[in-house]
Write a structure and sequence with these properties.
With about 500 residues, the protein is of the alpha/beta class. The protein is about 45% helix and about 15% strand. The protein has 22 helices and 16 strands. It starts with a strand and ends with a helix. The structure holds pyridoxal-5'-phosphate.
Length: about 500
């Protein structure tokens, strides 16, 4: 099964090359051509019941990554998920009537670890498959969590350098410290004076910049991306949708074939898109519920068919979802438009030139059939954290709280009676101050003192990787102008 570009479907390459390239040369994103053809039957899904997370991962990856050998996949999966603190990798917890899929037990306590622990190994393998002897520079824009997870995943991997750009004033204190203390001989970290969208578009432009391309050739480097525009980021995320379903099946909470809803705290639309792919691959899904914070571009889009990023960028309690350009929506629109690459090319040009586009009535109908979109404001986010802790003794992080609150709204509208699985995207200790102040009182303690106090008062334990962060040495202190990403990249390429 090949990957094709959303903006030119004549460009068709193997999955391994798709992972290496990250983005297509004309700016389109790679998707699997006719992924529906790989659909698992209910019987096949039922057969996953006695398998571990790793083995479920192997079964799904084998279908999608058709040019990888079995042994290389198994090896990559082992290397990736041995680093998780939970044997289950992504445990499923029942909270009241609903289920929370905890995706934050990886090395950096955010869901992005699930994909970014695996991607580096898939990338190394992909280079071997294609007999590429170039070196790679992985470029990553981050609103906070991707950066650290990518740095951890790619650190000290031979022939690869990784550079991360984050909005200098846009992440949480813990997120920033996680990145600026990053070890490894191939890691580069920069704060930029701008927001996440500035970082993301800056990097997207680099990928198609002809001058830099020549420079790269000279240095025998290629670019790749660890952002969710890379198809290699999406694939590992499909696995936990299957895993959580199988988990409910095993516990006899559902019967085989029974549909479930997934509620996903969303930003760049990668996580929820993986859920859509799980559905196309045969997983019995009723609705995919996209939860946003006050940067509610996606909710407005769902209600009107107009995507309009011309609005103020708000800094919220859930910074990893502070995004006005949700890149992965492009992939969904490609599918909803019946693979109309010319159309996608046009609306993405509209977005770039005018900051907005509108989709057709029939596409909007299709979107509303499979999805529900809604958002949560700041006050409700705080109240939700408090309520869920007090009523159910469960500690939500701010992003997951946005999802929880949208789930509550959705349940009032949903007449399907399907079980609800909420994806929990970060450890509450990554956002200790916001979580603490939502439940208890305002405090002038610093972030790390609050972390300890939150743990003492709630009896939830701090993840190991966050425990000793306070005393780690800051190794990266560079702050750059948003227009200087290109020059910075030249410097990185010249460094040894
Ligand atoms: C990245 C992130 C999200 C949003 O995920 P997308 O795939 O970008 O939609 C939500 N919550 C947290 C904690 C994240 O790090």
């Amino acid at each position: 099964m090949n990957c094709i570009s959303t903006r030119n479907k004549n460009i068709s390459i193997s999955p391994s090359l798709g992972i290496i390239k990250g983005i297509s040369e004309e700016g389109g994103l790679f998707i699997f051509e006719n992924i529906e053809n790989l659909k698992l039957s209910l019987e096949e899904i039922g057969n996953l019941k006695n398998l571990s997370y790793k083995n479920i991962a192997f079964n799904i990856l084998k279908k999608l990554l058709s040019d990888f050998s079995d042994s290389s996949l198994k090896n990559s999966i082992d290397l990736a998920y041995n680093k998780f603190s939970s044997k289950e990798v992504t445990p499923l917890v029942k909270v009241n009537q609903d289920y929370i899929l905890e995706l934050f037990h990886g090395p950096t306590s955010a869901f992005k670890d699930v994909a970014l622990s695996l991607l580096p190994h898939l990338t190394v393998e992909a280079m071997k498959i294609n007999k590429i002897d170039k070196k790679l520079l992985i470029l990553t824009a981050t609103s906070g969590d991707t950066g650290k997870a990518a740095l951890e995943g790619f650190k000290n991997i031979e022939n690869i350098k990784i550079a991360v750009f984050f909005p200098n004033d846009g992440t949480s204190i813990v997120q920033k410290k996680q990145m600026t203390t990053q070890e490894g001989n191939n890691t580069f970290v920069y704060g930029i004076k701008g927001n996440f969208d500035d970082a993301q578009s800056g990097i997207k432009n680099i990928f198609t910049d002809k001058n830099i391309e020549n420079y790269l050739k000279e240095k025998n480097y290629s670019f790749s991306s660890a952002n969710s525009i890379n198809i290699g980021r999406l694939i590992p995320q499909i696995i936990y949708y299957f895993y959580s379903y199988i988990n409910l099946l095993k516990k006899d909470e559902i019967s085989l074939g029974e549909k479930v809803n997934f509620i996903v705290p969303s930003g760049n639309f990668g996580d929820i898109l993986a859920g859509y792919y799980a559905k196309l691959l045969g997983l019995p899904v009723n609705k995919l519920v996209c939860a946003s914070n006050s940067n509610k571009v996606l909710t407005d889009f769902y209600n009107t068919g107009i995507y309009n990023k011309n609005r103020d960028f708000l800094k919220t309690l859930s910074p990893s979802m502070d995004i006005l350009i949700s890149s992965n929506l492009e992939r969904l629109l490609f599918h909803l438009s019946n693979d109309n690459d010319k159309y996608i090319e046009k609306i993405m040009r509209d977005l770039k030139e005018n900051g907005q586009y509108q989709i057709s009535e029939s596409m909007l109908e299709k979107l509303q059939k499979d999805f529900y979109f809604d958002y949560t404001d700041e006050e409700t986010t705080r109240k939700t954290i408090k309520k869920v802790f007090e009523n159910y003794n469960y500690l939500l992080d701010t992003h997951t709280a946005v999802g929880y609150s949208v789930m509550e709204k959705f349940k009032k509208l949903d007449s399907s009676n399907c079980k609800n699985i909420l994806l929990s995207t970060a450890s509450p200790f990554k956002f200790s101050k916001s979580v603490y102040e939502s439940i208890f009182e305002e405090t002038s303690l610093n972030e790390f003192e609050i972390m300890k106090k939150l743990s003492e008062k709630t009896k939830f334990s701090i993840p190991e990787n966050l425990k000793d962060l306070e005393n780690k040495k800051e190794l990266h202190k560079n702050i750059i102008e948003k227009n200087n990403i290109d020059k910075t990249i030249e410097v990185i390429l010249c460094s040894e």
